[in-house]
Structure formats: structure tokens, C-alpha cells
Amino acid sequence: MIWHQLLSSQRTGQKPVANTEPSRSAFEQDYDRIIFSHPFRRLQDKTQVHPLPEHDFVHTRLTHSLEVSSVGRSLGKRVGEIILQRHPDLAKHYTLFDFGAIVAAASLAHDLGNPPFGHAGEDALSDFFIHHPQGQFFKDKVSETEWHDLTRFEGNAQGFRILNKNQYGLKLTFATLGAFTKYPCPALFPTRNKALRSQKKFGYFESEKNIFKEVAAALELIEAADGATVRHPLAFLVEAADDICYSIIDLEDGCSLGLVSYAEAKALFEGIITKNKSKLGKLEHLHSLPEKIGYLRALAIGDLMDECSSLFLDNEAAILAGTFDQALADHCPSKDGLKAIINLSVEKIYRARTVVEIEAAGHEVLPGLLHEFTTAGWFLLNGTKSRKYHNLQLLLPEEIRVAVAQRPNDVYGMLRLVIDFVSGMTDRHALSLYRKIKGMS
Fold it and tell me: Locate the HD/PDEase domain: which residues (predicted)?
């Protein structure tokens, strides 16, 4: 792979054109389009880990995405500066800010496809088709490939779908779409090798297969097998930014909520603060818990960014050749300290009662909504008359009703649109709508 192709500013469905805004690059335009989009605003009311209303200092998907984007921009610029020195011809067309803008935009969008109720929401949407009779009803009405999509809801693939839906008009550059796609393979992938990081999950549904092919061809991503490619190199930085933020900031939230003691958190942070150890003395001059834990978090993130960017640059040739396929955070010098944080988070944060309660709610609410709205969609496809389901059809967005009516034989397309509707809801909207249609509110 070559950087000139990987940094393509071409957009989906459009021919390459010169940038008409000298003061704002195509990649900065990507960032702006995402941050003003409706799907991004919805992240404000989507759970990261902890329930939303009670504590204003607990992270939502929105604040998490903004922080990941900030770290991603710094990683991109650090890496870009050295790459431009190594490849002088690139400097005629790109700057380190282009690298930063691509990683920042892709990082900003990295959670757009996540459903309500945290990661449990993904399992809840999958379980509907795996376990519920109404979900199983559709098994023989779609292809094997489509069924794999439906029984394995994947937030990354849903995010790629959102970024390419015409209704949002995002039309991002191929470089940003490539950096966004951490798992450049389909759901049905017989030769999947989970030892490779890029194949641990999947990055696009059957409905977006042709779009992914267009992007991959333009970027000249190396083909693997069964519709898969190797990663766009900058996807490693997007992943690293996410890994750094969720590990560190979930620990910060856990300490703020009293689930982890300050002494425990401090010891864990110090385990990954290497380059900035000399600055730890400032802690003695800080008094409040938020100040202390915030300072430790800042030092830890700074050191992890140094480690991950250095590891990327050390392996640039292997990454471009498609032979490096591991998470940077799993191989950086502080990997053991990060694992210790994750182990404690699993034990004391992710299994906290409030977290378990909201996950349990998701497993009831989301399959319940899918049951009602997939039935409404099926009746709409077939012209079946039912006052109840006619009313439910009217609760679907108009663009979904129109699209379903225009494709009466497309069962998979109908199901994807209903899943778009349910997975795109905020936590509060999903719970409120469920209560209303069940007669509880």
C-alpha cells in the first residue's frame, strides 16, 4: 500500500475533484460534517458504561467520542510529522494536519453505530433473531449471508452503514472511511482468523458490500480473502485512541463513582505513567479527588500516546505491507499496566449493579421493539391489514415506510431499516417508546 492512495480525498459516488476551500481541507470537512450530523448528536443520550441521568461527570457516548477524537488527532499529527519526513514527495500534497484530521474524523465517528444500552444493546439486537420466535420467522426469507448479518449485530458495521446512508448526506472521503473501518471484512467469512485484530469482528453488512469494495479499490487496500482486506494504516491509530480512552476514562469514572478507591486508581495509573513520572510530585499540591484523578489521567494518556505512535512508526513498513495486524495498545510497553486496569474494570466497574441493571433493561426493551416493528414492516411488505400494526407503521419514520413500500420483495432491506430505527434510538427514547406501545405509559 502507498500513502498517496491511502490519503485519497475522493468521496463515495463522486469523481476526484480539487478542494475548493483552501482554508479547510477535505478531511476537516469530514470532521465538521460528522459533528453536525443527527446520528452524532444522538450519542449525547447513549450509555457509555454507567446510567446517564444521575451524575453529570459520567461519560456518555458523546463525550467519549469527543475525547477519542482529540487523542486520535494528536496521534495522527505525531505519526504524520515523521511519515512526511520519511516520504518527502508526500509533503508536496499533504501536511501533518491532514493525518490528524483523518484520524480525528474517523475517531469522532467510531461509535455512531452503537445501539442504546451500551454494548449489551448489540447482544440484545442479535438475540432477537437467534432466540425469539418472531426473529426466527425471518430465517428462511433471507440469504445465508444476510442471516449472518442479522444474527450478529455489529456496531462497527452499523456505523459504516450510517456514514454511507444518503439521508444524512455525509459522503466522507475514502481516507476517512478507510481509517474508520477497523474490521475490513464481512460477517460471513469462512476463513476468518481471529488471531488477526482486523478479523476479530466485521466492518460492513451485505447491504454496504459494494460501497466498501469501491472504497477499498480506491485506497488500494491489500486484498485478503472472502471479501476482506487488510486495514487502512490509520485505522490502527483510531483503534489506539479508543483503547486508550475507554481504559483510562472508565477507571476515572469508576473512581469518581466510588466503585474504585483513589489508592487503587492511583497505583494503576502510575503503572502506565513512564515518561511523565517526574511530574507525579504535583499531586501533593492538588486537593480535590477530581483534580488528582484528572491529573493522573492526563499523564497516563500522554505517555500512552507516545508509546502507541512510536510503535506505529517502528512498524510502518509492516503495516503498509499488511503483515502487522495487532492492536497497538496490546503491544506497547505499558500493555501489562493497561491489562491490569481492564481486569479491575471488569471486576469492579462493568459488573456494578447499576451497569447490570441497564444492560438487563436493554435485553428486554430492544427485542420487544424489534418484535413489534419487524412485524409492522412485514405486514407493510405484504399488505396485511391490522389496525395495531398500521398504527405501529405510522410510528416509523416516513422515509422507512416509503422505502419498504417501494421494495415489496426485499425482506432483508426491510429488516435493516427497522434495525436502523431501533438501534439509532437514544436510551431514553427506546425505553419511552417501549413503555408506550406496551401500554405502560
Answer: 57-256
Q: Are 138 and 65 in contact (CB under 8 A)?
A: no
Chunked into runs of 10 residues, the chain (441 residues) has average pLDDT values of: 95 72 87 94 67 54 92 97 96 94 97 88 94 95 95 96 88 96 94 92 95 96 90 98 90 83 90 86 84 91 96 97 95 93 82 74 92 95 91 93 91 96 91 90 66
Q: At what angle are helices 233-256 and 262-270 packed, to 10 degrees?
A: 150
CATH 1.10.3410.10, the chain: domain bounds: 239-348
Location of each CATH 1.10.3210.10 domain in the chain: 3-114+143-219
Which residues are CB-neighbours of 110 under 8 A, at least 6 positions away? 65, 68, 159, 180, 182, 238, 242
pLDDT, residue 57, reads: 56
- Tell me which DSSP letter residue 54 carries: S
Alpha carbon distances (Å) from 121 to 30, 126, 163, 169, 430: 28, 9, 20, 26, 11
- Report the distance separating Cα 276 and Cα 306, nearest Å: 11
C-alpha span between 22 and 92 (Å, rounded): 15
Confidence at residue 58, expressed as pLDDT on a 0 to 100 scale: 61
Report the distance separating Cα 174 and Cα 10, nearest Å.
6
Q: Which CATH class is domain 3-114+143-219?
A: mainly alpha
Cβ pair 271, 340 in contact under 8 A: yes
The helices-and-strands tally (H runs, E runs) of the chain is 21, 0
Alpha-helix residue ranges (DSSP H) falling in 225-334: 233-256, 262-270, 289-314, 316-321
Find where cell 467469512 sits: 189
Which DSSP letter does residue 26 get? H
Three-state DSSP at 212 gives helix
Q: What is the pLDDT of residue 20?
A: 64
Per-residue model confidence (pLDDT) at position 26: 93
DSSP-assigned letter for residue 11: B
Cβ-based neighbour number of residue 329 at 10 Å = 23
> How much is the pLDDT for 55?
46
Round to whole Å and give the CA distance between 412 and 149: 10
